[in-house]
Amino acid sequence: VRKGLIDTHCHIFTEEFRSDITDVVQRAHEAGVSHVVMPGIDPGSIKDMYNVTDRFPGFASMAIGLHPTELHDGWKEDLHQIRSVLDMDMRGPHRFVAVGETGLDLYWDQSLLSEQIESFKEQIGWALEYDLPLIIHSRSADAQLLEVLGDYDRTALKGVFHCFSGDVEQVESLLHYENFMFGIGGVLTYRNSGLDRILPHIPIERVLTETDSPWLPPVPYRGKRNEPSYIIKVAEKMAQVYGTDIQTVIDVTSGNAIRLFSLETIQQDLG
Ligand SMILES: [Zn+2]
Questions:
Q1: Which pick of 70, 129, 207, 215 has the fewest CB atoms within 10 Å?
Q2: CA-to-CA distance for 37 and 200, rounded, in angstroms?
Q3: Distance 186 CA to ligand 1 centre (A)
């Protein structure tokens, strides 16, 4: 068993995992996954995430935010509600390790771009105010993402470009944001993604491992529900791409995650 893999992006609080979450966490432990970070999707995520963290103490951390594809009627009220929970937590137990996931998604629907930007910027504000990392989702919105980020150049904003799958040009533009990591998951194992040729342009010191469970399972699990234990396939491919060994990949990327999300105390609890 390899110790210390961290799945920095998984949604194991969703209904896809309701019937067998205990087995999923057990398999994760057996695969050497020591910790996971669960990004919120909408207000309903919050109580579901509390349930998972309470059930498996020390195993799962939470982030809080509103996903760009979840801006339904009343989204401002949703944002307000999420903000209230964050405010309360920041005065109290500090259970949230990041803001997100937020960002821009123009893949299915481009009609809500201005609303997505407004929601994104609001959540960037929370991250800055509370000095929390930001989990950014960006799909089919490379130019728009750079435009928004440009407004925060030379601020203390930090975070991760989750599920990064841009080209070399985008890598170079985003590397400029020195306090940001690149989240890499199952897409790296897809033969047609080309991500294995892009990744060497990103220093491993800027990379986090993630699964995005239940979505985007790595080879050879495509077509199945993704889960944190499969992250070993991402780490193996990463070792191959960087020409290093898997333990180095685990040590470096886990170190990156622990620093970004301030997981030091949680790691100690794991002994
Ligand atoms: Zn996600």
A1: 129
A2: 25
A3: 13
